[in-house]
Amino acid sequence: MQPLVRTVGISKSYPSGGTIVCAVSNVSLVIEHGEFVAIRGRSGSGKSTLMNLLGLLDRPDSGTYAFNGREVAKLSEDGRATVRSHDIGFIFQQPALLPRATALENVELPLIYAGIPPSRRRRKARDALDRVGLGDRGHHWPNQLSGGEQQRVVIARATVNDPVLILADEPTGSLDSATGNEILSLFEALHREGRTIIVVTHATEVANRARRLITLHDGRIVEDSSASSDNLRPAALSMGSLP
Amino acid sequence: MSPLESLRIAARALRVNKLRSALTVLGIVVGVGAVVCMVSVGAGAQAEVSEKIRTLGANLLLVMPGARNSGGARLESGTQPTLTVEDAASIRRELADVQVAAPLLSRSLPLVAANRNWVTVVAGINPDYLVAREWQVASGRLFTSDEIASGAKVAIVGAVIVEELFNGGPGIGETLRIGNVPFTVIGVLDKKGLGAAGRSQDDVVFIPLSAAKSRVLGAVRGTTREALDFISIKVSDTTAMSEIQRDVEALLRQRHRIRGDAPSDFRVENPADVLFARGAAMRLLAGLLIAVAAVSLVVGGISIMNIMLVSVTERTREIGLRMAVGARRREIRWQFLIEAAILALVGGLVGAFLGAAAAVAIAWKAGWPVLISPWAIVLACGFAGFIGISFGLYPAHRAARLDPIVALRFE
Do residues B46 and B366 touch, judged by C-beta distance below 8 A? Predict the structure, then answer.
């Protein structure tokens, strides 16, 4: 089986204030199916840019990126949108819900663009809300939900289309620690189901939950907790028996 | 994503900002409304003109008394009797294409029948006049030549008179006092409707010209008994109207002994020409208003573009989010384009409805037939939709061009 993510020497630079900032520089990375990875680094370390690249929101300037066995570095905007709608679920910092749509409608959003017919869409969205424990809140507006509930709706949206990769950017950034812990428990549950999760964070408690820790500094990987170890087997197999 | 889905999303976004959406389409509403209203009013006015020409008789010329010099003072047109029955007879006799030349003498007089009274136009005519006007009796009969010759006290009345004086009853055989002279009603005329001056043509009483001169009007007027109000000429060849008009003028100038370039003491008019000119003026006015309405449509389009641009900026985060979860650029473009098109089309439909209502109100007020042109509605709404889409293109393009990363970070 191909690794889910395999980048070879990807770089991305932005013009910023007259100079060119190299946000991600020559990063080579392999992430297998079923891994739970945290990417850590100070602000400006390039972790958000790396997440945008891994999530196909952005295109690397150089290097190659094979996503789920398919070369995607040169994919067009629309081609990347199609991959995103089918294979990647995003969890952003808040607020990341459409304010004028109900929780259920927010969860349905990726299914609309994936071309799922309305009746099946509604059913899948309900199931996803059920899984995050909000089955009875589908018709609430985002501003009627607490911060933790909103983030759970976002998680339901990120998982509704059964993506092979879940990408989270500071998923507990705007939550208190108790609510944050609930969210992190949800992440662990998702991981136990065998999903691949990449979390970008600077919070240690988030990073500690992950099975693998990658530290970025100035756009380069300076530490990778599993790079030297040999347990790069699909995590789904090894984690399946964990509580 | 299916088109229906795009439509639903767009309609939803518009419902969120109801007041703003309503204000945005106002320009389109006014534009489409004005076009539909003006085209309909123009068509109604046109139909009205045609109808008047038809009831008047299309091949009619009128000779009216004009100003006359009296000791250096120009007297007002019609104040001096210049036309006579003899003039009418000679026009008929001497001009080949003249079918009928009917003299008419009229006055507004009080009528009394039983215990009702009414003031209306009493006109002394020969049967020729009804021929010239192509006017038949609905019931009863016309004047006989004996009655004309003897100045018999008989009358033919219009439908309005039957309504006002005889309570809608048959009226034939009833006695009608004109001034103080009793006349017998022998005929009721067909309905003609409103005339060129906006007065009902059916509000009229016809009596023999001789009776009018000797028994009714002569006493009122105190002027020469030969005087006429006008002569109606029916022409057999409508293509020669202007030639005959010239011939009549020449003949009457000769009869009235007007030499060289001295002004005539009469006028020869073609009422259809006057009506045509009025119709043309009305069409020109409607055309100008339609041009103004077109400008309003363009302004309405600009206002849609303006609001769509504001909306794209406001919803940058939403756009970024939609892109992140898999919306392709064309799906974002369609969403905003459909919003603009819905705005314009709804504006167009509301405008068409209001315009049609206004046209009905105007037609009703003016007594015209109501003619709502379905083509005007289809065309105006189509144009509104076209405007909406063309002015929505740029904002939609801007939305679709957004970089999802930048859009997601937008506050």
Answer: no
How far does the CA of residue A90 sit from the closest CA of chain B (Å)?
A: 7
User: Are residues B15 and B341 in contact, defined by beta-carbon separation less than 8 angstroms?
Assistant: no
Q: Please write the tens of the pLDDT for every residue from A107-138.
A: 999 999 888 888 999 999 999 999 888 888 88
Q: How confident is the model at residue B72 (pLDDT cuts 50, 70, 90)?
A: low
Q: Are A154 and A96 in contact (CB under 8 A)?
A: yes
Cβ of B326 and A92 within 8 Å?
Answer: no
B57 falls within a domain: no
User: Number of A:B CB contacts under 8 A?
Assistant: 58
Q: What would you measure as the largest C-alpha separation in chain B, in angstroms?
A: 105
- Asked if B224 and B301 sit in the same domain, the reply is no
Q: How far apart are the first and last CA of chain B?
A: 28
pLDDT for B76: 52
Half-sphere exposure of A88 (CA within 13 A, CB side): 28
Is B378 found in the same domain as B282?
A: yes
DSSP string, A1-27: ---SEEEEEEEEEEEETTEEEEEEEEE
For chain A, domains (ranges, CATH) are 5-239 (3.40.50.300)
Q: 8-67 in B: which are within 8 Å (CB) of A?
A: 9, 12-13, 16
The interface pTM score, or ipTM, of the predicted complex is 0.85
Contact A90 B325 (CB under 8 A): yes
pLDDT at B282 over 90: no
Instruction: Determine if the pTM surpasses 0.90.
Output: no
The total number of structural domains in chain B stands at 2
Share of chain B above pLDDT 70, in %: 91
Contacts made by residues B271-278, CB under 8 angstroms, sequence distance 24+: B271/B53, B271/B56, B271/B60, B271/B62, B271/B196, B272/B53, B272/B56, B272/B58, B272/B60, B274/B196, B275/B49, B275/B52, B275/B53, B275/B56, B275/B196, B276/B49, B276/B53, B278/B49
Asked if B279 and B45 touch (Cβ cutoff 8 Å), the reply is: yes
Domain of residue B171 covers 81-264
The model's pLDDT over B370-406, given as tens digits with 9 standing for 90+, comes to 778 788 888 888 888 898 899 999 999 999 999 888 8
Residue B75: the pLDDT is 54
Backbone φ, ψ for residue B225 (5° rounding): -75, -10
Q: Are residues B236 and B89 in the same domain?
A: yes
Q: Is there a single domain that holds both residue B33 and residue B120?
A: no
Query: d(Cα B279, Cα A61) in Å, to the nearest integer?
Result: 72
